[in-house]
Fold this sequence. Notes:
Structural class: mainly alpha
Radius of gyration: 29 Å
Helix content: over 70%
Amino acid sequence: MSGNMMIVVLVAIVFAYLALTQFSARGRRHNALKQRVDMLETQLAIYKQYVNKETLEAINQRLQVVEKIVTDDSYDLKKEINDL
């Protein structure tokens, strides 16, 4: 094998090695992310069992009160929070 050919082969081997290690790392990251998504989906399913329309409406009403307090400059913030 000539000197130039040997260099080409070595460069090809190095690039192949780098490509394989990069592919392997992406696979591990993908698996870790998939496990995290699966765990979050499971948690969401559990939380959905406990949330109903009435609970969401109560939370929404409280959020509207807080939004009014925070966005309206004429309110005395401390008094309004204490009145809650």
